[in-house]
Structure formats: C-alpha cells, structure tokens
C-alpha cells in the first residue's frame, strides 16, 4: 500500500484523484458503490508485481476526487469522458479495464466508443448490461428495491441523514455482501434493514471501514446517489453498434445478490454473447458482491491470467 502513488488529473477544471503503482501494460480499475480506489488495493499490488501498471481513479464526486459543480447533473458519460482524459493526460494509448459494480457500465461504454484503445475488459459483480429503459423493468421488482429507493430524490438523503457516515457505509457493505436483494417494506427505509448488532463481513476490517468512511465524509453522497442510481436509465451515448469488439471476462460470486435480479442470470448465460461475443464467465463459490475484497488471491489470479493471455 505504501508504494501506491497518488496523483491528480485535471478534467475540465475538476481535479480527479488517481492511485497508481507498477510499470508495464496499463490496467485501469474502475470502482463501484459504496467503493473508492481503495477497494482495488489487493488487485493493484498484485498486477504491479506481475509486471503491469495499475491505475485506479476515484470517480468524480467520490473519494479524493472533486465534486462536480452540479452533482445532480452528473452522468455515466461523464465517467467515460473522465477516463479518456486520464489516459490522454498520461499519454496511454491502450489499456485493460477492470471494473466493479456500476464501474462496469463506463468500462463497456468506453470499449464501445474506443475499441482501439482497449485490450480487454474484466467485470466483477455485474456483466455487460443493456442500458436505458431495458436495464431495469419497473414492474419486475417492488418499490422497496434499494435501487428505486436510492433513485428517489431526497429519500436516501433523509434515510442516510439519520446516521453518521461511517454507519451508512457499514450498513451498505453489510447489505451488499449478503445473498438477498435489499428490499424494504413500505414502512421501512433501506438503512432499517440492518440490525445495528450485525458484524462486518469477516474480510472487511474496522480499519477498512474507517478508510472508506473518512473519504465519504469528505465527498458525501450527492454524486454517488446520482451516479449510478439516478442516472441508471441513461443510454450508451454516441454508440452506433451495441457490440463489444474486445475480449471480456466476467467474475461473479455465486452468492452475489445481483444474480437474483429478475432476468439477469438468463441474460448473463444466454443473451450476453449477442452483445459481447468474446466473453468468458466464472463463478466463485461462496463469493459475494465484493469478491475482489473477499477472495483477493483468487480474483487476482483470475485477472492476471486474463491479462497475460491477452498481452
């Protein structure tokens, strides 16, 4: 961890934080929610030791990156543009993209727009997904589904505001590491789903929580609630053909609650190749939504094998 360097890139006047370690072919790690660059700590060191250069930005409005002036107008396309800015600022021509959760969306969007600059894509916690209205069908999940609750302006802010930031992050990690979709009753809020006595997952320490909480205390949740939740119906702006032309690898935990999203498992196993022809999928037994932190050695080996195969 102490060998990881921290830099800043100017993206249209917005300072984006970038963590970096190693030399060689470049691997860019894109985090999800409630994550930051730190969620890739194990993978960054591992790929650097394997002869690669690891770069992990904090998305705009997350971690050590600055807040946009109007967080409520942030889009997934902003993250694609930010990635392009980061690569250009470092004079990097081609990269591997490794993405988790909502980071999967801009990773594939970037690969669709700039296939000549992407060697391959690894996604964890989510596969390639259709965008816009096709991504989540309102009638398939109840109103208490956490994505719908977080997408409702003001509701999550009120829910989170009852607690300190550290407790909010703690609760979300506990919820998202489970095997059931977080769904609240009509008389509940999402934070009410976690019993205060519930321990953190065994693989997530109090020190880890403190590192996350410290940065979320800085950033707040305005941008994180906008992207991914309130921007979730955004399309793949600028893409003419919805077909990924680079190799892809999907890593899923067998107990990831995401696999219970209606239709997702069928899409992943039966339909995804229509959009990502050169894709392989692997499932980690007992794996949760946070496989890269839960089973870092296994995930590191899978990622490095993919990188070496396509270098």
Automatic annotation (TrEMBL):
Name the record gives this protein: AB hydrolase-1 domain-containing protein
Organism: Kingdonia uniflora
Domain AB hydrolase-1 as annotated: residue spans: 25-294
Gene Ontology molecular-function annotations: hydrolase activity
Keyword Transmembrane: no
Short name of one Pfam family: Abhydrolase_1
Protein family according to the UniProt entry: Belongs to the AB hydrolase superfamily. Epoxide hydrolase family.
InterPro entries reported in the protein's UniProt record: AB_hydrolase_1, AB_hydrolase_fold, Epox_hydrolase-like
Keywords, sorted A to Z: Hydrolase
PANTHER family: EPOXIDE HYDROLASE
């Amino acid at each position: 961890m102490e060998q990881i360097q921290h830099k800043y890139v100017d993206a249209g006047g917005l300072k984006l934080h970038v963590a970096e370690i190693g030399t060689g072919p470049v691997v860019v790690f894109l985090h999800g929610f409630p994550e930051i660059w730190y969620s890739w700590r194990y993978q960054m060191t591992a790929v650097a030791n394997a002869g690669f250069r690891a770069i992990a930005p904090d998305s705009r409005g997350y971690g050590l990156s600055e807040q946009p002036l109007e967080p409520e107008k942030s889009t997934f396309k902003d993250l694609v543009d930010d990635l392009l800015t980061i690569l250009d600022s470092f004079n990097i021509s081609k990269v591997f993209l490794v993405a988790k959760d909502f980071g999967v969306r801009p990773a594939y969007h970037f690969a669709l727009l700039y296939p000549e600059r992407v060697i391959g894509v690894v996604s964890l916690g989510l596969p390639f997904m259709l965008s816009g209205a096709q991504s989540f069908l309102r009638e398939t999940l109840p109103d208490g589904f956490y994505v719908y609750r977080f997408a409702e302006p003001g509701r999550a802010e009120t829910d989170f505001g009852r607690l300190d930031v550290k407790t909010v992050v703690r609760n979300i990690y506990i919820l998202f590491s489970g095997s059931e979709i977080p769904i609240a009753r009509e008389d509940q809020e999402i934070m009410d789903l976690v019993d205060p006595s519930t321990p953190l997952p065994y693989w997530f320490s109090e020190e880890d929580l403190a590192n996350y909480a410290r940065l979320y205390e800085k950033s707040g949740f305005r941008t994180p609630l906008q992207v991914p939740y309130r921007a979730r119906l955004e399309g793949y702006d600028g893409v003419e053909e919805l077909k990924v032309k680079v190799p892809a690898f999907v890593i899923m935990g067998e107990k990831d609650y995401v696999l219970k999203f209606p239709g997702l498992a069928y899409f992943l196993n039966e339909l995804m190749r229509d959009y990502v022809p050169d894709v392989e999928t692997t499932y980690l037994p007992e794996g949760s939504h946070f496989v890269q932190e839960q089973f870092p050695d296994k995930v590191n080996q899978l990622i490095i094998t993919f990188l070496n195969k396509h270098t």
